[in-house]
Amino acid sequence: MFKYCIKRVGIAVLTILFIAIVTFLLMNAIPGSPFATEKGVSPEVQANLEAKYGMDKPLPVQLKNYLVSFVQGDMGVSLKMQKNREVGDIITEKFPTSLRVGIFALIWAVAVGIPLGCLAAYRRGKVLDNVIRVLATLGVAIPGFVIATTLLIVFGVKFPILPTSGLNDMKSYILPCFSLGFYPMCYTARLTRSSMLDAINQDYIRTARAKGLKTGKIIFKHALRNSLIPVVTYIGPLVAYIITGGFVVETVFTIPGLGRYFVQSILARDYPIIMGTTIFLAFLLVVAMLIVDIVYKIIDPRIQLGKAGE
Q: What is the pLDDT, as a whole number, of residue 134?
C-alpha cells in the first residue's frame, strides 16, 4: 500500500510537470502579447514590460525559470486581470466559490443519478426504465451551455422566480448547480444501470435468488456494491472538474468563481493565471484519481492496489 502510494505520487508529479510544459509551450505559441491593448503600446514600452516580467528571454529559459519559481511556491503575478497580484492569492480567493457550487452540483448528481440507475435496472424493460433511459440520453446529448441558457431564459425571463446571476443567497445556487450537475447525473444514471445489469447476471446474484431473497434487496444491497466500481471510476476525475467550476455555467450565470476567471484570463492572455489555474486543475485531477484507487479497495477488498494501475 505504501509503496503503491509513493509510486502514484511520483507518477502524479511527472504528469503535472508534463501538463505544465505542454501548457506553457502552447500558450506561448499563440500570436500576440499580454501587453497589447486596443489603443496600442509603443515597441519600447512593450519591450520594457517583457523585460520586467522575464518574457524577453528565450522560451526554454522562461520555462525553466517558471518551473523553478513554481517549485519554490511562486506562481507569478497577474499581468492584466489584477495587475501585479499574486496568482496564488487569486486562486485562493476564487476557488471557494467554485468549490461550493461544485460540491452542491456533485451531491445532487450522485444522489439522484445512482438511485435512478438502480430503479432503471430494477424495472428493466418497464415504462419507468424507458423514461429514465430517455431522460439520461437527452441529458448526455444536450450540451451544457444549452441547459444553462435554457434555464436562464425560462426562470430568468419567462418566469422570473429564481436568481440568474451571482450567488447572493441559497436560491442563487439552484440554477447553476442544476446546470452543472445535470450531465453528470444523467451519465451516472446510465452507467449505474449498465453496471447493475451486468452485476445481476453474476453467480452470487443467482445464489441470492436461490436462497429466496427479494429482488429489491438483491439489487439495492448485493448488486449495488459491485456495480459502483465503474461509477467511482467516472466520479473520480469528475470531482476535479466539477469543483473547479464549470466554465460555461459560471460564465452564463455570472458567478465570480475560478472557472469564469480562467476563461477571462485566456481572453486577456494573462499567462501566469492560465498556467496557475491549469496546474491547479491537474493537481486536483491526479489527487482525485489516487483517492479513487483507494476507494476501490474499500468497495471491493479483493482488489490489489499494487496492480490497479498496471
A: 92
